[in-house]
Specification:
The structure holds two protein chains of two kinds. Chain A is mainly beta. Chain A is built from no helices and eleven strands. Chain A is globular, with a radius of gyration of 13 Å. Classes of the chains: A mainly beta, B mainly beta.
């Protein structure tokens, strides 16, 4: 089985530009999570979905961040406008079932905002 | 105070050494405890999973949970250079969220 697939792997953009990160969860998984990882703060949960429905977006830092999951096999995380402090590695994770504990992570998108 | 505290390291040990990695936490409701391994420029991958207290062994890896002390450990026996990675502890209290430590960077030199 293919794992969680994220694209792009690397993104370099200029401040003020819109950035869209993409994620394809493992087939058959019901929940999807977006995380941000920095050296200072570690791995932080931004938002998660159960059965394509956003459940908790309390980790989304600002209104500049938005996430969608239009179907069970695709999700996006958008930053508009981007700022240098958004530079981080963004991970997507999925899990089978809405009550399972174990999450499976993608390889991440390394975002640099200049 | 963070909910989960983890020494960032780096921890540098010779090949063959026994490694001890630890996390402390403050939320007594945590019941599920995990260790993830993250290689450089890769996503975290699940290494060990324990429910409630006790020990769990898998090959060279042993996970321990002491809920009375709010302390979890991961032991690596006969450490290998391929074990060089960042180790993240993660916990959950039966809700949907995992709370992660900041990770301990381990380097095993030949």
């Amino acid at each position: 089985d293919a794992g969680v697939i994220q694209s792009p792997r690397h993104e370099v953009t200029e401040m003020g530009q819109e950035v869209t990160l993409r994620c394809k969860p493992i087939s058959g998984h019901n929940s999807l999570f977006w995380y941000r990882q920095t050296m200072m703060r570690g791995l932080e949960l931004l938002i998660y979905f159960n059965n394509n429905v956003p459940i908790d977006d309390s980790g989304m830092p600002e209104d500049r961040f938005s996430a969608k999951m239009p179907n069970a096999s695709f999700s996006t995380l958008k930053i508009q406008p981007s700022e240098p402090r958004d530079s981080a590695v963004y991970f997507c994770a999925s899990r089978r079932g809405t009550s399972a504990v174990i999450q499976y992570f993608g390889a991440g998108t390394r975002l640099s905002v200049l | 105070q963070k909910e989960v505290e983890q020494d960032p390291g780096p921890l540098s040990v010779p090949e063959g050494a026994i490694v001890s990695l630890n996390c402390t936490y403050s939320n007594s409701a945590f019941q599920y405890f995990m260790w993830y391994r993250q290689y450089s420029r890769k996503g975290p991958e699940l290494l060990m999973y324990t429910y409630s207290s006790g020990n769990k062994e898998d090959g060279r890896f042993t996970a321990q949970v002491d809920k009375s002390s709010k302390y979890i450990s991961l032991f690596i026996r006969d450490s290998q250079p391929s074990d060089s990675a960042t180790y993240l502890c993660a916990m959950s209290d039966n809700t949907d969220k995992l709370i992660f430590g900041t990770g301990t960077r381990l380097q095993v030199f030949p």
